[in-house]
Amino acid sequence: MRNPFETEEHSAFREQVRKFVETEMSPYVDQWEEDGEIPWELHQKVGAMGVFGFGIDEKYGGLGFEDCIMRAIFAEEVNKCGSSGPPAAVGGRSISVGPIAKLAREEIKLAVLPEVLCGNKGSSLAITEPSGGSDVARIKTQAKQDGSDWILNGSKAFITGGMRSDYFVVAARTSGTGLQGISLFLVEGDAVGFDRTLIERKMGWWSSDTASLYFDNVRLPKESLLGHEGTGFLQIVNNFNFERFSMVAGMLGMMKRTFDDAVAWAKERDTFGKPLIQHQVIRHKLADMSAKIDMIQSYLYQLAHIANTGEMPVAEICKAKFAASKALEFCCSEGMQILGGAGYLRGHSIERYYREVKVQAIGGGSEEIMRDLAMTQMGF
Questions:
Q1: What domains does the chain contain, in order, with CATH numbers?
Q2: Radius of gyration for the chain, computed over Cα atoms and rounded to the nearest angstrom
Q3: Which of 33, 76, 77, 243 is flagged as catalytic?
Q4: Is pLDDT of 238 > 90?
């Protein structure tokens, strides 16, 4: 379906990303997933396109402008590669560079951001803890002042890119209870007292490293505090909106790839004397999948257009996220049903997407949290 918000410049960017995915990602996804990692060169190749630099000043290596339509195009196209694992592996830095660019001291921005944005180094956002996933108010990791320094103790869980990142934006409690008293700190990967372990045997995202982080009396200089003490949660709220928005776009890409693969199979496969696609029941499945794709695409790019005008449609982004994860779940299930046993085999994109649905429905704010937040934002 034609996107009325996509300009010629946007279309050229889409074609650039699409060609990159076709040549640099899709042919290697099967091996990366089995290996459990992507080559670091992919971070650098993606970084060279500038896609990590939306909304970040050029002097720090950013693009110097914001364009949510371009954000959506990139996330959509890169997630058509055959797995959402590699996009997660390279894109994990995207949710941490915003707080650094917004809150860090000038000398830190100049030292850290150019290296992370070009893909030479990695960064991760460390919010989630073993004792409380979506409940940010229950953060137990603590940072206490010791002279002019801070001493950090605690742990984090399910941190995307955590094994290979060089920098971490870590949320820690510095005072009070609840959402008040949470502060953000920039922690370097080689800090004394910092350790990490790989989370293995995941249902999906095999090629994206996921880690548990441990802080044992990690001493941080005062410059490590990002922004004002006690305002960490408020400082990253807007960051969540961009993360969820990109996840919606990524799910749209997964849905489109699933549909395309199902159509290709249905055209090739002969059953009962005719191609599978000529059977009414299969045609109806494809029609239902296509309708859901069109609806999510329309919703997504309308929200991108609104965001580009300067308004952040928080409630609608929340609704889009849980609507997209439900639509993706439907499309992956129907796609696998169309392929039958072939879709159940490891190495097929639909088999991977089917396993990766749940991380999309949970990560970045669960479907349940998104529904409740949407209602709150709507004034109910």
A1: 8-117 (1.10.540.10), 123-231 (2.40.110.10), 234-377 (1.20.140.10)
A2: 21
A3: 243
A4: no
Rounded CA gap, 65 and 5, in Å? 18
* 367 CA to centre of own chain: 15
pLDDT digits (tens, 9 = 90+) for 284-330: 999 999 999 999 999 999 999 999 999 999 999 999 999 999 999 99
Find, among 313, 253, 194, 326, the residue nearest to 75 by Cα.
Answer: 253
Q: How far is CA 173 from CA 127, 138, 228, 233, in A?
A: 11, 9, 13, 10
What separation in angstroms does the CA of 128 have from each of 52, 91, 102, 132?
A: 22, 17, 21, 7
* Cα separation values, 60 from 56, 57, 139, 170, 239, Å: 7, 6, 31, 21, 18
Select from 195, 182, 108 the least CA-distant residue to 139. Answer: 182
CB 330 within 8 A of CB 287: no
Each residue of 116-141: pLDDT tens digit?
999 999 999 999 999 876 677 789 99
Could you give the residue ranges of the DSSP H alpha helices within 230-348? 232-268, 280-308, 314-339
Are the C-beta atoms of residues 10 and 249 closer than 8 Å to each other? no
- Token reading at 70: 């371009």
Handedness of CA 17, 64, 162, 365 (dihedral sign): negative
Whether 129 contacts 141, CB under 8 Å: yes
Alpha helices in the chain (DSSP H): 8-24, 29-35, 40-47, 68-78, 85-91, 94-103, 106-117, 232-268, 280-308, 314-339, 349-362, 367-377
Which residues pair with residue 155 across a beta bridge? Answer: 214
Report which of 64, 125, 57, 72 is spatially closest to residue 95, judged by C-alpha positions: 125
Q: Does 200 qualify as catalytic in the annotation?
A: no
Separation CA 170–CA 136 (nearest Å): 12
Which tokens in the block code for residue 147? 């002279």
